């Protein structure tokens, strides 16, 4: 299992377009991937789950992956978050 805590830096947080990009990226991996915010944990491959977290700019989330490509999955998702989802 691989875990990484990251801060959401883009203006809109994980809403609408960034959430869709996040789910698309997570879905490319065979590992099980979760996003945890304030003790609420959701499937990173579920758009409704991601949206339900209400992640805003400045919030921190924990990414958790478990599977054969868990390290690659976490790296790809952290890179996507760090790129601010192409915003700005």
Give an overview in words:
Keywords: Cytoplasm, Phosphotransferase system, Transferase. The protein is an alpha+beta fold and 88 residues long. The protein has one domain (2-86): HPr-like (Histidine-containing Protein, Chain: A), CATH 3.30.1340.10. The protein contains three helices and four strands. It has helices spanning 16-27, 47-52, 70-82, and strands at residues 2-7, 32-37, 40-43, 60-66. It has a four-stranded antiparallel sheet, covered by helices on one side. Helix 1 runs antiparallel to helix 3. The longest helix has 13 residues, at 70-82. It is globular. The termini are far apart.
- The amount of beta strand, in percent, is 25-35%
From the N-terminal CA to the C-terminal CA, the straight-line distance is 33 Å
Shape: globular
Strand order of the largest sheet: 1-4-2-3
């Amino acid at each position: 299992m691989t875990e990484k805590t990251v801060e959401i830096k883009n203006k809109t947080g994980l809403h609408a377009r960034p959430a869709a990009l996040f789910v698309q990226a997570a879905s490319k991996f065979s590992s099980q991937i979760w996003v945890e915010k304030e003790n609420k944990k959701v499937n990173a491959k579920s758009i409704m789950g991601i949206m339900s977290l209400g992640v805003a700019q400045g919030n921190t989330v924990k990414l958790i992956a478990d599977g054969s490509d868990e390290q690659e999955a976490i790296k790809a998702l952290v890179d996507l978050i760090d790129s601010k989802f192409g915003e700005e």
